[in-house]
Amino acid sequence: MKRGWKIFGFILLGALFIVAVTYVTMLLWNWLVPVLFAGPVITYWQALGLLALSKILFSGKGSWGHRGGCDHNRASAWKNRLSSMSPEERDAFKRKLKDKWCQFDRTDSDEKTGSSNV
Asked: What DSSP line would sit under 84-97, residue for residue?
């Protein structure tokens, strides 16, 4: 139950952050652009659209927070970590990861017999 409230709180804070940033953008635009560049005054929704457009144009490939591709620093760090382990440690580590993250591949009949598809 507590976890649900945390998720709701994060979503609410995220929405409030977007509302605040949009409002500040609108205020700054309407304060500066008409005076400095004889540009138009914009509404709240136009400011939100302007922020979305700038995010698409300037964040690379139009992604929202994900840069795409592989993070090579992280991949090389994992390769270094795995290469420094003994074969037994590496197998135990892989088994631990499979047990934690590959539970969704198992069917009910596999769980009853103790076998897995992994």
From this structure: TS-HHHHHHHHHHH
Does any domain span residue 111? no
The pLDDT assigned to 38 comes to: 92
Q: Which domain holds residue 96?
A: 77-106
Nearest to 99 by CA among 109, 88, 87, 111: 111
Does 111 have pLDDT greater than 70?
Answer: no
> What's the structural domain count of the chain?
2
The whole-angstrom separation of Cα 76 and Cα 94 is: 17
Q: Is residue 6, in this structure, part of any structural domain at all?
A: yes
Tell me which amino acid residue 91 is. Answer: D
63 is a domain residue: no
Task: Specify the amino acid at residue 85.
Answer: M
Distance CA 64, CA 79 (A): 28
Q: Does residue 70 lie in a domain region?
A: no
Which residue shows structure tokens 């940033």?
21
CA 63/CA 60 separation, integer angstroms = 7
Full-model pTM: 0.49
pLDDT band at 5 (very low <50, low <70, confident <90, very high): confident
